[in-house]
Amino acid sequence: MTWKSEQLSSNELIIREALLTTGRLPKHVAVIMDGNGRWAQERGMLRVEGHKEGMESVREAVKLSSQLDIKYLTLYAFSLENWKRPAREVRFLMGLLESYLKKEVAELHANNVRIATIGKTNALPKPVQKVLQKAIEHTAGNDGLTLTLALSYGGRWDIVRAVQMIALDVRRGKVSPEDLTEETMRSYLSTGGMPDPDLMIRTSGEMRLSNYLLWESAYTEIYVTNELWPSFRREEYYKALSDYTLRERRFGQTSDQLRTATVGPNNTSKPTTMERILDAFR
Ligand code: IPE
Ligand code: IPE
Ligand code: MG
Q1: How large is the average pLDDT for residues 209-228?
Q2: Pocket of ligand 1 (CB under 6 A)
Q3: Which of 54, 80, 207, 275 has its Cβ near the most Cβ atoms within 10 Å?
Q4: Residue 276 located in a structural domain
């Protein structure tokens, strides 16, 4: 049975309907999955147990994104800075990643998910690189959710890499410096083919970007929850999405301008019944 044909509980059906009716669901959700270690430590367990439990939250987030027809989910799974953690923890995380990809790829494929990756993936252990490549190739033709795993990723690293490639293309005469635009820059980043994230969720209450999607998040709505990643399950994801549907994205303009210019998504003047349901849920 595919995720989309699963029967939802009546509560979930209501919230899902309310979210869809707003017409304001994000196209691209980026997540900083933080707090695994604290989740485990709070329970007197080893940090790695938190990472294990966090995998279930990954499954839930992927499934719900797909069920709600969100087009892009970009998960920060391992930062460039995370290489500085104790070797045992890094090894464990790499093993977890490998087994996730091996175990889940068939189900992801059956649900039309396309797997992608951003980051300095050639730094990953060879076996991980292999399964990752296989998963990407296997799901390349899917056009449902694009699940991008940020692995060995850093926003600054990606920007420097893009600038290096632009410089090389300038040297080869393919690009002229005068013609460089924000769009050129975007196309050289590893997120080149994706729209910017509409919503960025960070768990565990930390108010920082930790080098995630620095260029792309210029106008992203940020949602920080105190919930630790292993406890971030469907209900928490619904909360984040409901909160997002209430945001007024002004992109530098004034509220008045938006109210007169838009009917629909940005018009917050009259809350609908569905919006009132969402409000109660938050
Ligand atoms: C997030 O949880 C997972 C990764 C960064 C790989 P942490 O491991 O950072 O957990 P805390 O923040 O120490 O609780
Ligand atoms: C951010 O979490 C990276 C990932 C979630 C993969 P960290 O736990 O590494 O971030 P800092 O060090 O607290 O900023
Ligand atoms: Mg952390």
Answers
A1: 98
A2: 33-38, 78, 82, 93, 204, 229
A3: 54
A4: no
